[in-house]
Design goal:
347 residues; alpha/beta; globular; 37% helix; seven-stranded parallel beta sheet; 11 helices
Length: 347
């Protein structure tokens, strides 16, 4: 992949503000401000459970569900049969939650994940048996089907695809904060949107930390779509790469029961960018439950996992460094800009 050179931060950025930007996943969502509040509460809960002292910096969502779903879910709707009823609200973790032992499932998932990509993907990352994957997307992932379609959408500037309008929401947010220290969190389909924007639209915008949660980026149909867009834009690499603007870390979190993140080993499919950054894959326990029904794909559970909370605290604390510590950090990045970040699975 042709990448713009990634240069170390200039000393004038020692006092950059920190911002966390979230991109939600599939399906209709509550109003943007409420969803943003619930994400913020989830992260604060994780920091509190981890006994971390730092408070959350600025957090903003780049919401997009309203582009596809014209009427948001409504917290005042009490009828469970209504399409606008919120059936999974933010709730704090239950103290008696027991994750169970899924070591056997992990072995099966790891085996099937590797075999699935061998069956469905050719060496050039084109897709085999597309009629099967198209049927699955149409049945279970309608938002993703619309995202990948060429269906026109009327906008103030004329006609555009849903994909273009959805991506622009995140692009505008990144441009707004391009001079800040950014942690970007993509959950579920939001991780696809984040990857696409960072790769195709904003490769020059620096991202301190990319976090993907419950991500389908390892699924053959998604890999093939990314590769197809690379070819369309004249990028000739036969391997996918981490977005060029990531300069710190890319953490990928998945619960072994999360079927959306079935093929969770992103480090197997996404090579290093020019800064030596590639996904660091972690298996975690998503403890989200609502009315005694567990959902291992829910963002609120991912956002309070101990593994993510530790990374979040590390990001926040880096903004509290002294001037001397920041100078040393800049010197290290200047002298050693291509330090490797080992890819690993942490169970």
């Amino acid at each position: 992949m042709n990448e713009s050179p990634v240069l170390p931060a200039h000393p004038k950025h020692f006092f950059m503000s920190q911002v966390i930007i979230g991109v939600h996943g599939l399906g209709n969502k509550p109003p943007a401000l409420l969803l943003e509040s619930w994400w913020r509460s989830s992260m604060k809960e994780g920091l509190r459970l981890g006994k971390y002292k730092f408070s959350l910096p600025l957090f903003e969502m780049a919401p997009w569900s309203d582009i596809i779903h014209k009427t948001s879910q409504d917290p005042s709707v009490e009828d469970p049969e209504s399409p606008y009823f919120i059936d999974e609200k933010y709730v704090e973790a239950q103290p008696d939650f027991h994750p169970g032992d899924y070591s056997t499932r992990k072995k099966v998932v790891d085996f099937l994940g590797r075999q699935m990509n061998r069956v469905f993907l050719n060496e050039d990352l084109t897709l085999n048996y597309s009629f099967i994957t198209d049927a699955i997307i149409s049945r279970y992932f309608s938002d993703l089907e619309i995202y990948y379609s060429e269906i026109p959408l009327e906008t103030n500037g004329g006609l555009a695809t849903y994909r273009e309008v959805i991506r622009k929401r995140l692009l505008d947010k990144l441009i707004e904060h391009r001079k800040d220290d950014i942690m970007l969190i993509g959950h579920s389909m939001g991780s696809i949107i984040a990857f696409d924007v960072l790769t195709f639209l904003a490769p020059e915008i620096r991202i301190n930390t990319l976090v993907t949660m419950g991500s389908p980026l390892g699924l053959p149909v998604v890999i093939s779509r990314i590769a197809a867009e690379m070819r369309q834009k004249g990028i000739s690499d036969t391997r996918l790469k981490s977005p060029p603007g990531i300069t710190g870390k890319w953490y990928n979190y998945a619960d072994i029961l999360d079927i959306v993140a079935f093929n969770y080993r992103l480090a197997d499919y996404y090579d290093e960018n020019s800064s030596g950054i590639k996904p660091v894959d972690h298996l975690v326990v998503n403890d989200y439950e609502f009315n005694n029904v567990r959902n291992p794909h829910k963002a609120y559970g991912y956002l309070r996992t101990p593994q993510f909370s530790a990374v979040l605290n590390e990001f926040i604390s880096s903004g509290k460094l002294s001037v001397r510590e920041r100078v040393m950090q800049w010197v290290l990045k200047t002298l050693y800009p291509f330090r490797k970040s080992p890819a690993r699975i942490t169970d």
